[in-house]
């Protein structure tokens, strides 16, 4: 079965991990800082805090934003549920706003219409690696007095109007799951422009511990003393995984180039095909494509999915609208709230896309798909 996405691990990655395994620090050591510094090269210098997953990154970013009971978060439903569920678990109310019908990112007009005096955060999702319209969304958050968060789980290496994703929102979250462009096996990170929010994120991912003597309530207990001034969690990404992340980030230019070449081949083969729409792209965006999301017209998405899977082609659907999940249905959310997102979901199909996909593999994908559609 050809998967829709998979990691690309080479000898340098393996050696980086083995070096840590042979060393003194498996966690809370020098590779953590090295990974965060390497990641900041891809965020335009915006500093980062590493965490254990993309979900942990969202949770940590929302804590750093001060999100909690009585607040509202506006976001897209066309995303993995964690974009919303981490806010729900903090006691905030999630307000879903519709997407732009061609690129499936948060529609600034819909986001504006969804804001209220209780809006604390607006979270955009860089769907498939294509950045949202951050200039328009910044106007929305400025008018609402809210923070702008970027869920860039798909978008490491993407650029918005020439600026790297990670530098355009107040807080940006990344995921390094194996299907993502860069992997740490499991892992994530938060980039924060405001140093105070960066510090809040760093404390939260380490149980809320404070060691700075100037900030301790009881500073004279001894050199061992540390305090929890606000509760956090253990979201620390260990050195052994950070070492893999450093090695992977150094390969990101090659990953990005190979994905772009595969996208160009898909575009050339599928552009203009009746019954299928290829991914749209806005002039402001330079995406580092994580997914290749086509839209299967004519109500045939389920048929194409089943037939491609039966042929050993691991296509995928990304994603069920978040408020369709029973956990949100049980909170009173109903289908029909975001018609553009639901229409996109009804047709969406992700074709295999990863650096190790050979031209021959891709030709097989294309041959099977064209045989079904033509």
UniProtKB/TrEMBL annotation:
Acetylation as UniProt keyword: no
Catalytic-site annotation from UniProt: 180
One GO molecular-function entry: pyridoxal phosphate binding
GO biological process, one term: polysaccharide biosynthetic process
Keywords: Pyridoxal phosphate
Coiled-coil annotated residue ranges, if any: none
Pfam family, one: DegT_DnrJ_EryC1
Record PTM N6-(pyridoxal phosphate)lysine, positions in chain: 180
Cofactor: pyridoxal 5'-phosphate
UniProt xrefs under PANTHER family: DTDP-4-AMINO-4,6-DIDEOXYGALACTOSE TRANSAMINASE, TRANSAMINASE
Record-stated family: Belongs to the DegT/DnrJ/EryC1 family.
The protein's name in its UniProt record: UDP-4-amino-4, 6-dideoxy-N-acetyl-beta-L-altrosamine transaminase
Organism: Spongiactinospora rosea
């Amino acid at each position: 079965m050809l998967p829709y996405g998979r990691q690309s691990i080479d000898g340098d990655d393996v050696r980086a991990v083995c070096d840590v395994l042979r060393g003194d620090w498996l966690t809370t050591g020098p590779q953590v800082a090295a990974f965060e510094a390497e990641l900041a090269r891809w965020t335009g210098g915006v500093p980062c805090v590493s965490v254990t997953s993309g979900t942990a990154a969202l949770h940590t970013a929302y804590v750093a934003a001060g999100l909690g009971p009585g607040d509202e978060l506006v976001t897209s439903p066309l995303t993995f549920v964690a974009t919303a569920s981490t806010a729900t678990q903090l006691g905030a109310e999630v307000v879903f706003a519709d997407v732009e019908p061609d690129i499936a990112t948060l529609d600034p007009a819909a986001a504006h219409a969804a804001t209220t005096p209780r809006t604390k955060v607006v979270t955009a999702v860089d769907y498939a690696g294509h950045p949202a319209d951050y200039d328009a969304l910044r106007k929305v958050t400025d008018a609402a007095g809210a923070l702008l968060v970027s869920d860039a789980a798909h978008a490491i290496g993407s650029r918005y109007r020439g600026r790297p994703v990670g530098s355009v929102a107040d807080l940006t979250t990344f995921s390094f799951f194996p299907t993502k462009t860069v992997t740490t096996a499991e892992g994530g990170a938060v980039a924060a422009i405001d140093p105070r929010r960066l510090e809040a994120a760093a404390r939260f991912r380490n149980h809320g511990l404070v060691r700075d003597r100037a900030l301790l309530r009881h500073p004279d207990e001894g050199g061992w003393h540390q305090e929890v001034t606000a509760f956090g969690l253990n979201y620390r990404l260990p050195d052994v995984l950070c070492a893999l992340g450093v090695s992977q980030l150094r390969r990101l230019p090659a990953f990005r180039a190979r994905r772009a070449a595969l996208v160009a081949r898909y575009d050339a083969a599928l552009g203009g095909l009746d019954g299928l729409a290829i991914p749209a792209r806005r002039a402001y965006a330079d995406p580092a494509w994580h997914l290749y999301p086509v839209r299967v017209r004519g109500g045939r998405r389920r048929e194409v999915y089943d037939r491609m899977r039966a042929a050993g082609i691991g296509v995928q659907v990304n994603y069920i609208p978040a408020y369709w999940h029973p956990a949100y249905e049980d909170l009173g959310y109903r289908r029909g709230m975001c018609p553009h997102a639901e229409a996109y979901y009804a047709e969406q199909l992700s074709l295999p896309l990863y650096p190790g996909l050979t031209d021959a593999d891709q030709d097989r994908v294309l041959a099977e798909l064209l045989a079904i559609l033509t």
